[in-house]
Specification:
The complex is a heterodimer of chains A (111) and B (114).
Chain A lengths: L3 E3 L4 E4 L4 E7 L4 E9 L6 E6 L3 E5 L2 E6 L4 E6 L8 E9 L5 E3 L3 E6 L1
Parallel strand pairs in A: 2-11
Antiparallel strand pairs in A: 1-3, 3-8, 4-5, 4-9, 6-7, 7-8, 9-10, 9-11
Chain B lengths: L4 E3 L2 E4 L5 E6 L6 E7 L5 E8 L2 E4 L8 E4 L6 E5 L8 E8 L8 E2 L3 E5 L1
Parallel strand pairs in B: 2-11
Antiparallel strand pairs in B: 1-3, 3-8, 4-5, 4-9, 5-6, 7-8, 9-10, 9-11
Classes of the chains: A mainly beta (111), B mainly beta (114).
Chain lengths: 111, 114
């Protein structure tokens, strides 16, 4: 499998702070990048997708992609306790349609 | 995503028994993926199927595991002669076309082998 690396954490931030989650990938042909959120005992749910270098903002979430560095990140502004979950980074190759996931970063937002 | 239906949600099997997990993709989706998630680990790709075709099974264990997606009916992940190490959450996901924008997950099937 293609490698997708994430810091497993746990990452703890106070309520209202910015949470920064990072992901690196090994395959240069990766074309599409996704962030999923997974609550304990639940299925992953898509929160962001990004395809081009740069930033993409959606509400409190900002995804950042740097293909040259093979790096994608997720920033969560004004973190809320309800953001406490595991965040999974996923990449999709241009061919084959496989989606590969990292092991996830556990985030805890402290009230 | 509630549109992808998996059953059973929880399944308990004794060692040596067979487990069958079913997945009905979202309406209009013809591509199905199966992932396994062990406790405290990430999602591991197992197999990617289209109707009546296995496209990529590079993540499937060589023995005891098989998957199908018939022309009619749900996709089935079958585990024969289960062992305790098979205890995991099995997630199904679907997409509408090859290279689709993203995949949508079902609620998962939790297999416990005792």
């Amino acid at each position: 499998q293609k490698e997708v690396e994430q810091n497993s954490g746990p990452l703890s931030v106070p309520e209202g702070a910015i949470a920064s989650l990072n992901c690196t990938y090994s395959d240069r042909v990766s074309q599409s990048f996704f962030w999923y959120r997974q609550y304990s005992g639940k299925s992953p749910e898509l929160i962001m997708s990004i395809y081009s270098n740069g930033d993409k903002e959606d509400g409190r979430f900002t995804a950042q992609l740097n293909k040259a560095s093979q790096y994608v990140s997720l920033l969560i502004r004004d973190s809320q306790p309800s953001d406490s979950a595991t965040y999974l980074c996923a990449v999709n190759l241009d061919t084959g349609n496989q989606f590969y996931f990292g092991t996830g970063t556990s985030l805890t937002v402290i009230p | 995503n509630a549109g992808v239906m998996q059953n059973p949600r929880h399944l308990v099997r004794r060692r040596g028994q067979e487990a069958r997990l079913r997945c009905s993709p979202m309406k209009g989706h013809s591509h199905v993926y199966w992932y396994r998630q062990l406790p405290e680990e990430g999602l591991k790709f197992m197999v990617y199927l289209q109707k009546e075709n296995i496209i990529d099974e590079s993540g499937m264990p060589k023995e005891r595991f098989s998957a199908e997606f018939p022309k009619e009916g749900p996709s089935i992940l079958r585990i024969q002669q289960v062992v305790r190490g098979d205890s995991a959450a099995y997630f199904c996901a679907s997409s509408p076309w090859a290279g689709g924008d993203t995949i949508y997950f079902g609620e998962g099937s939790w297999l416990t082998v005792v």
